[in-house]
Structure to design on (276 residues):
């Protein structure tokens, strides 16, 4: 017979029950919010600030509205660097992040608890190690995604890119694509796919396109994919996601195999949303 402190078996029993009850409450809340219309004030913000919203098919919008409400209910937002965070900022960020959840099983970026927003580009420390020597240098950033807990964004960049998707860049889509990538615990450019059999094809297409982008970046050849994607595989997936949503028609024309892979992953066809 196992022995332990008084009440240990009760604790073992109660803990899973409590966890299960919490998961059930969350599932019920998510279902309720998915069926609730988006408040008029929030809808007005999205229509005004997020140009991509005006392009997506009407049949996708009710689903997006539900995802936005769940995202806002579950994520903590905090302004830093003197920024007074507003409802407009929260809604503008949530609307873009939730584009990545459309038509997919939505876990709402489980590794991200908080969204930290700076007024503009911010300075963060970057550590490097060479043998036994570790150095730290300042790095100016517009956004970053941590493997646990945080997404950090610069508001002026968020607002500008939300209004101009034709430029191809979107820091919100970029950083939350990293969150999708990091759900399995590794930032390697390969998110969790639908089946084991999908991984070899993902590796072949993404690996080949990444190598080609590195060559183009080295030779200063312009492409619909931003050269920053040549940094590593994780950045390539994030940059490819930006191009997929913002410059879908051009990406499909220039990189049809890559577009098809992302179309299968995101279950969307942005090339049909707008002629660009």
């Amino acid at each position: 017979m196992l022995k332990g402190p008084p009440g240990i078996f009760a604790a073992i029993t109660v803990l899973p029950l409590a966890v299960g009850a919490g998961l059930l409450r969350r599932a019920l809340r998510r279902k309720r919010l998915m069926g609730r219309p988006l408040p008029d004030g929030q809808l007005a913000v999205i229509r005004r600030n997020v140009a991509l919203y005006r392009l997506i098919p009407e049949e996708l919008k009710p689903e997006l509205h539900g995802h936005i409400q769940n995202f806002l209910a579950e994520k903590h937002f905090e302004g830093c660097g003197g920024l007074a965070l507003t409802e407009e900022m929260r809604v503008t960020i949530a609307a873009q992040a939730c584009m990545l959840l459309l038509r997919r099983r939505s876990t709402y970026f489980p590794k991200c608890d908080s969204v930290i927003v700076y007024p503009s580009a911010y300075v963060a420390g970057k550590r490097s190690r060479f043998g036994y020597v570790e150095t730290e240098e300042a790095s100016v950033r517009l956004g970053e995604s941590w493997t646990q807990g945080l997404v950090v964004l610069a508001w002026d960049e968020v607002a500008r890119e939300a209004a101009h998707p034709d430029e191809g860049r979107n820091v919100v889509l970029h950083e939350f694509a990293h969150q999708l990538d990091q759900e399995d615990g590794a930032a390697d450019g390969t998110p969790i796919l639908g089946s084991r059999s999908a991984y070899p094809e993902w590796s072949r297409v993404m690996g080949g396109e990444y190598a080609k982008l590195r060559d183009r970046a080295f030779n200063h050849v312009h492409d619909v994919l931003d050269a920053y994607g040549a940094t590593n595989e994780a950045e390539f997936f994030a940059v490819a996601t930006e191009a997929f949503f913002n410059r879908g028609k051009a990406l499909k024309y220039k990189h049809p195999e890559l577009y098809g892979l992302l179309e299968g992953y995101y279950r969307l066809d942005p090339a049909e949303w707008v002629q660009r």
User: Anything to note?
Assistant: The longest helix spans residues 8-34. The beta strands are 76-79, 112-118, 122-130, 133-141, 143-145, 149-154.
